[in-house]
Amino acid sequence: MEDLIQNYLEYRKTLNLSPATLRLDRTGLRRFQSFLAKQKLTITTVTATTIKAYWQSLQSLSTGTIHHYLVTLKQFYQYCCKHNLVLLDPFRNLELPGHLKTIPAQVPTPGQLRELIESIDITTWIGLRDRAIFELVYSSGLRASEAVNLNLSDLDLSNRLIRVCGKGNRERIIPFGKTAACYLKLYLKQRGNPANPALFQNRAGGRISRDILEARLRLHAARLDLRLKFHSLRHACALHLLQNHAGIRSIQELLGHRCLESTQIYTQLVPLDLKKAHNRYHPREKEVRRLG
After folding, report:
1. Among 20, 156, 165, 220, which is disulfide-ready with 161 (CB 3.0 to 4.6 Å)?
2. Domains along the chain?
């Protein structure tokens, strides 16, 4: 089974999936391999009952992780069937649980985020870099991995656009605001190693890492008694746009979500006053206001 898993993972690499997805694939298949070893089973003797027992063994994990592990395993068996490595697919009569999206935690309010970003000391090069990164990510909803991988050539400062390579190597060009542009200009004047194409650099002039991004945000947030992850900036961008009546499809495009379902989770955090919306936007109510 070891060789089969390795061959399958090599095949998955050819699909331009993100490194994080590939890591989850590997972890999930290794976990299933260990489960089979304890049950003294092989890949060819797995039945629907075996899958249900494995499913039950995952209950201590998050819903999203369980969903990913089961979908990965189902796709693995489809691959095995296609290549005649197993006779029957144990998933053929099984219905997998839906991926229950959870409401994002740790989303700062606009006031908290303003206080956090404006508290950064920009008289130092590191502080100016942090401010430029946080402003850009909050303005454009970048993932940490996307911010880390930005190059100077991806930045169109005059038009306030940035080219981003997201999950699955899907490229998108997205806008950012005037405030982010202002601090990016200041940062670029002091940007370090010109030989390094990376937009955001570390103290040594190399490309900044995700670990540094997380650590710097925690440091600045802790001074204000806030407990935030770097991804909180992306959540805040989406939620605050939605609260200010941006269209859900526009937010989906900005964030680079493949499915609208991933973006719609933010609507659970926005209270909707249907009566007020009806009075404001329904065409017949507009006519009444004109008559009055």
Report:
1. 156
2. 2-82 (1.10.150), 110-269 (1.10.443.10)
